[in-house]
Amino acid sequence: MSYNKKKAVGRWSLVVGCFLIGLILITGCAKQPVEVYDARVMLGTVVEIKIIDADPQKAKQALTAAFAEISRLEKLMSHFDQDSALSRLNKQGYSGDMELCALISQAVEISKITDGGFDVTVGPLMNLWDFKAKVPRVPSLQQIRNTLKNIGYKYINIDSNKNRIMIKKGIDLDLGGIAKGYAADQAIAVLQKEGICTALVNAGGDIRAIGDKEWDIGLKNPRGNDILAAITVKDKAVVTSGDYERYFIKEGKRYHHILNPNTGYPADLCQSVTVIAPTATAAVALAKGVFVAGPLKGLKLAASQAQTEAIIIDNQGRLYVSAGLAKKGNTYLLKKD
Questions:
Q1: Residue 105: is it exposed, middle or buried by C-beta count within 10 angstroms (0-12/13-18/19+)?
Q2: Contact 208, 185 (CB under 8 A)
Q3: CATH architecture of 35-333
Q4: Average pLDDT over residues 78-104
Q5: Does the pLDDT value for residue 12 go beyond 80?
Q6: Higher-confidence position of 86 and 324
Q7: Percent of the chain scoring above 90 in pLDDT
Q8: ∠ CA(139), CA(142), CA(146), 5° rounding?
Q9: Which residue, 7, 183, 243, 262, has most beta carbons within 10 Å?
Q10: Is residue 82 packed enough to be buried (19+ CB in 10 Å), middle (13-18) or exposed (0-12)?
């Protein structure tokens, strides 16, 4: 049997050539990922969602589903809607809503971790201070003492077996300190269910990202309009609590909305706290707990939680960065011109 080397090489060249042409055609037709974005006023703030996917139609459908989920949660957790599950709990003193029970259970656990620095029973204190008033005022010491009688997460009784919550009469739960973070997490869960792998949800500064993309997050200077620092995060939640968000100045002193549930007055050891954690629910609650604790105790608190880091600006403007975050080298100060 004879073997024609030239013909054999020619046939293989033809096969390889066809394969390469097919590969080029397939690669050329592959859809490139695009960013799909939308923003809506919800939860008393602006909620932004960014999705990166090769199928814009699928991404738009996922956006619609995620915003629908946030709308559902707003009706569940609203402190202002008298028909919300939370409002009914506050009026009746009990609730059998399974989701509300699970969220409040998580809030109570974080209250324990933060020694009460984060506490969803601060509703009466928030009402007393009324930072949204046209002419805000500083409550009297006696008013604060009277209000503190109804403050404390220990007044919340949870029967996890029956999915039942019971609260002491006079207690007014306010989930404003955790609601946006929880909504961001649940929106991400919906996006994942819709087949989205890379996305970012920003619920008024409570941020949760998924996927391999690295996102650059700027940290506001609490005493200016510039960006003080920036971090790069991937597949994490980032939340900042600051004394510049809602405040008023009285006789040269700043009074802001991050209240210390133990004293009844605004926490005064920090200007800003940023927490990076696996979920936005944990990050937002811990940020408030760290803010109340102050920089030294706050860094220890962050270190005690798995995959959790913190950036703290104290009341003198000094910057503290948790050891794990500094070691990773993904936190940097922006140079001023």
A1: middle
A2: yes
A3: Roll (3.10)
A4: 93
A5: no
A6: 86
A7: 76
A8: 100
A9: 183
A10: exposed
Portion of the chain with pLDDT greater than 70, in percent? 88
CA angle centred on 139, ends 137 and 142, rounded to 5°: 165
The residues spanned by each domain of the chain are 35-333
Under 8 Å between Cβ of 321 and 331: yes
Mean pLDDT over residues 2-10, rounded? 40
- For the cut 80, the answer to whether the pLDDT of residue 304 exceeds it is yes
**Residue 332 — very low, low, confident or very high, per pLDDT cuts 50/70/90?**
low
Tokens 């790069």, residue?
Answer: 232
Calpha distance 108→153 (Å, rounded): 6
Beta-sheet pairing, 206-210 with 215-220: unpaired
Tokens of 159: 């029967």
What is the pTM (predicted TM-score) of this model? 0.87
The residue whose two tokens read 């927490």 is 275
Query: Buried b / exposed e across 301-310, counting CB within 10 Å, b at 16+?
Result: bbeebeebbb
Give the dihedral of Cα atoms 282, 272, 74, 94; nearest 10 deg: 60
Residue given tokens 């629908």 in the structure block: 68
